[in-house]
Amino acid sequence: MKRLTLLGATGSVGLRTLELVSSFPEEFAVAGLAARGSNVELIADLCRKHAPRAVALLDAGARDRLARLLPAPRPELLAGADGLVALTRDVDADVVVSALVGAAGLLPTMAAIQAGRTVALANKETLVMAGSLMTAAARARGVRLLPVDSEHSAVFQCLEGHSRGDVHRILLTASGGPFRETPKAALDRVTVEEALRHPTWKMGAKITIDSSTLMNKGLEIIEARWLFDLAPEQIQVVVHPQSIVHSMVEYIDGSVIAQLGVADMGVPILYALTYPERRPAPAARLDLPRVGQLTFFEPDTDKFPCLGLARRALERGGAAPVVLNAANEIAVAAFLGRRVGYTDIARLIEEALAASRAGAPASIEDCVAADVETRRFVEARVAARAGGRPA
Q1: Which tens digit of pLDDT belongs to each residue from 336-371?
Q2: How many domains is the chain built from?
Q3: Residues of the domain holding 10
């Protein structure tokens, strides 16, 4: 039986993972759970159902609220960033599922690697911020980084049994989001509610906004560079509105291998948990005649500048991806909070990249420092932009 520690237990990936744990009770057990702590009642329900040994909440105040909801004997309750690190480092687990959204996953994921635990990675920001450091640590400890994102899982599956030296390029597919056909001039008027209506996937608010701006795909380019040890120019994006082809690998002889399936995160999650084996997933099956047709388009980087900003950050290297990620997190939060407009997201990221003078991170601490500095800069720019904008 595999023991799992799950970071981001109350998010969409986390809850889907726990559904799979319930579907395969003879295969998986929950050793630890972690979450930000915004939904203590849900965390308490998950503790009653899955009986983890320990729970870590990023919000320290949420720990006491959780303690009041759980009768003794209760799990060990940890709090703050240090609590998340202790959970992945000290709680004995076979696999750590890293599904916290954003930079919050950086330190606990590195702690899991350093503890020698297999990491099922759904937190793309971890490799965006510290790809060289994370992959070097994984190699040194002999740790597998197994992708959970549907696109990277697809690439991973298409690479199985083939030489990496034979790869010409990979093609990451993107749905195009809710504004694929919206005129560029209309994006200034996009509302939060409109941006949260993703046409294919049901996800958390932050990643849904990232998908609408195509920043999610930009972050995936950077993640793919480190996961698969490819040059930036070997990673391309193609818009595929049906979200049936999850990604493709083109080899040097011109052969293209694709991974197809229904839009269900349970499939890549289960593959990461059972790799190198497969299990009969409790998911719908792909019916191609019913789908009818599959279409593909070039992404419009003029209308969606975040994709180009991510590629520029990757090519620039150093701390630029850290700055990109931090600026995006603050800008998206400001948009969700109705403090800035939709098109301000890309403008704020571009300003942060232009202003940054941070050197190449030599350690995780350097990544954290660049992250903090960028957040302060962008918060100040948000405050200047917001002016009289209602909260």
Answers
A1: 999 999 999 999 999 999 999 888 999 999 999 999
A2: 1
A3: 2-147
